[in-house]
Amino acid sequence: MWGILGRRAVDGGLSASSLRRMRSGLVSARSYAAGSKEMTVRDALNSAIDEEMSADPKVFVMGEEVGQYQGAYKITKGLLEKYGPERVYDTPITEAGFTGIGVGAAYAGLKPVVEFMTFNFSMQAIDHIINSAAKSNYMSAGQINVPIVFRGPNGAAAGVGAQHSQCYAAWYASVPGLKVLAPYSAEDARGLLKAAIRDPDPVVFLENELLYGESFPISEEALDSSFCLPIGKAKIEREGKDVTITTFSKMVGFALKAAEKLAEEGISAEVINLRSIRPLDRATINASVRKTSRLVTVEEGFPQHGVCAEICASVVEESFSYLDAPVERIAGADVPMPYAANLERLALPQVEDIIRAAKRACFRSK
Amino acid sequence: MALSRLSSRSTTLLQPLATTSLLRRRHISTDTTPITVETSLPFTSHLISPPSRAVETSSQELLSFFRDMALMRRMEIAADSLYKAKLIRGFCHLYDGQEAVAIGMEAAITKRDAIITSYRDHCTFLGRGGGLFEAFSELMGRTTGCSKGKGGSMHFYKKDASFYGGHGIVGAQAPLGCGLAFAQKYSKEEAVTFTLYGDGAANQGQLFEALNIAALWDLPAVLVCENNHYGMGTAEWRSAKSPAYFKRGDYVPGLKVDGMDALAVKQACKFAKEHALKNGPIGSNHHAFAFVFEQILEMDTYRYHGHSMSDPGSTYRTRDEISGVRQVRDPIDRVRKLIIAHDIATEKELKDMEKEVRKEVDAAVAQAKESPIPEPSELFSNIYVKGFGAESFGADRKELRATLP
Question: Has keyword Transport (chain B) (predicted)?
Answer without folding.
Answer: no
